[in-house]
Design a protein that fits this description.
Shape: globular
Bound molecules: pyridoxal-5'-phosphate
Order of helices and strands: HEHHEHEHEHEHEHEEHHHHHEEEHEEEH
Structural class: alpha/beta
Number of strands: 14
Strand order of the largest sheet: 2-8-7-6-5-3-4
Radius of gyration: 21 Å
CATH superfamily of the largest domain: Type I PLP-dependent aspartate aminotransferase-like (Major domain)
CATH architecture of the largest domain: 3-Layer(aba) Sandwich
Distance between the termini: 54 Å
Oligomer: single chain
CATH topology of the largest domain: Aspartate Aminotransferase, domain 2
Strand content: 5-15%
Largest sheet: 7 strands, mixed
């Protein structure tokens, strides 16, 4: 008897996550053959020598004996109180630990919060470019991504008129990623006010992915959405992975704000889905009060002279010096999203370029089209390597682009 074929869910064919996809697999093959690759595909601070701050490590060590039982599905009370206080400190008053949901990273909460919201055919307004988990989770929860464009010529900021024009009777939510992955754009308050007004007019849930909230450069400000949203229902996402350099601890949170009568059913739905997966990783939650205690450990890294600031400067200078590249210098987050221009851009295919760069120069980047954009001349690098390594990366990128321009 032939072994039956295991068929998979049809809609998976619509889902891509190339940050860890085919190119990353090929990179591992090259490494197994003895090649040293510079891998700029994942915003994973621990992989570039960053450590979670010591006082956070100590908090886990001190409590490791208390981490055996399941926790409440919403998370440990002390961690939730710290998260509510963190939001209060940045202007969101009237929220408490009851409004906080802790998950195994923001990733899990993105999935849960869309699963709690969507019926088949419901639409979610997503930025293009997006962080592709948002598209994937929308699709796998039977929704339909509808993209609003964030164009390079507008500083990768969205146009609220375009967002509103895309609202239909099926629209349920507007997703913002601020500061943005992959573009690094940080959204000004006036823009956020207009987007809040759209959500209010059409009865939409706001979902604000703020996982890079402490990472802004050169005076750029991060504006949290919840205080602007006020009574308008809003889920604000944050976590330990990036600002606190603890990706592997798998701790993220979401704060549900807005008129309690309007959010009552949604709150129960999130609670039920949280209960079905029992609880989030408990040891990591013990680090949350320490992480949010007020000791600023990311500030020195993003200030002039700090490693992330200098990495961003190295990338900005390399792009400015290259005849083949154009960069909208990121205001925040951990990435640069350069575009290829001029002769090198003729017939450019970001995938073929990324493959060639890896095979010939041993540098792994993510093709821009992985972020659900309709153009194919961009790529993303993370700013986490040492500045000198990034300068070397851009020398190699320029070599490949110069060959293409001359072809
Ligand atoms: N949201 C954005 C915009 C991200 O860039 C990432 C990770 O890169 C995540 C969410 C997922 O973060 P977590 O590690 O908390 O699951």
């Amino acid at each position: 008897m032939p072994t039956p074929h295991v068929a998979t869910r049809e809609r998976l064919s619509e889902v891509r996550y190339e940050i860890r996809g085919e190119l990353a697999r090929r990179a591992r093959e090259l490494e197994a053959q003895g090649h040293a690759l510079i891998k700029l595909n994942i915003g994973n601070p621990g992989a570039f020598g960053f450590r979670a701050p010591e006082h956070m490590q100590r908090a886990i060590a001190d409590h490791i004996h208390d981490t055996d039982p399941y926790a409440h599905q919403q998370g440990l009370p002390a961690a939730r109180e710290a998260i509510a206080a963190h939001h209060a400190a940045r202007g969101m008053h009237g929220v408490s630990a009851d409004d906080v949901f802790i998950g195994n990273g923001v990733s899990e909460l993105i999935d849960i919060s869309l699963r709690a919201l969507l019926d088949p055919g419901d639409e979610v307004l997503l930025p293009s470019p997006d962080y592709p988990l948002w598209s994937a989770a929308t699709i796998l929860n039977d929704g339909r991504p509808v993209y609003y464009r964030c164009r390079a010529e507008d500083g990768f900021l969205p146009d609220p008129d375009e967002i509103e024009a895309l609202v239909s009777t099926h629209t349920r939510a507007i997703v913002l990623i601020n500061p943005n992955n992959p573009t690094g754009a940080s959204y000004p308050r006036a823009l956020l006010e207009r987007i809040v007004a759209i959500a209010a007019r059409h009865g939409l849930l706001l979902m604000s992915d703020e996982i890079y909230d402490g990472i802004t450069y050169d005076g750029a400000r991060f504006e949290p959405l919840a205080p602007i949203a006020g009574d308008v229902p809003c889920m604000s996402f944050g976590g330990l992975s990036k600002v606190h350099r603890a990706c592997g601890w798998r701790v993220g949170w979401a704060l549900l704000s807005g008129d309690p009568a309007a959010t009552r059913d949604y709150r129960h739905a999130i609670d039920l889905l949280g209960a079905l997966r029992l609880c989030a990783n408990v040891p990591g939650q013990f680090a949350v009060p320490a992480a949010l205690s007020g000791l600023d450990t990311i500030g020195p890294l993003v200030a002039p002279g700090g490693r992330l600031h200098e990495a961003r400067r190295a990338v900005a200078e390399a792009c400015a010096a290259s005849p083949h590249l154009e960069l909208r210098v990121p205001d925040g987050a951990l990435y640069a999203f350069p575009g290829v221009v001029g002769d090198a851009a003729r017939g450019f295919d970001d995938h073929r370029f990324a493959l060639e760069l890896m095979e010939t120069e041993h540098v792994l980047v993510v093709p821009g089209s992985s972020f659900n954009v309709p153009f194919r001349n961009h790529f993303r690098v993370t700013l986490l390597p040492e500045p000198e390594q990034l300068r070397e990366v851009f020398r190699r990128i320029d070599r490949v682009l110069a060959r293409r321009a001359a072809a």
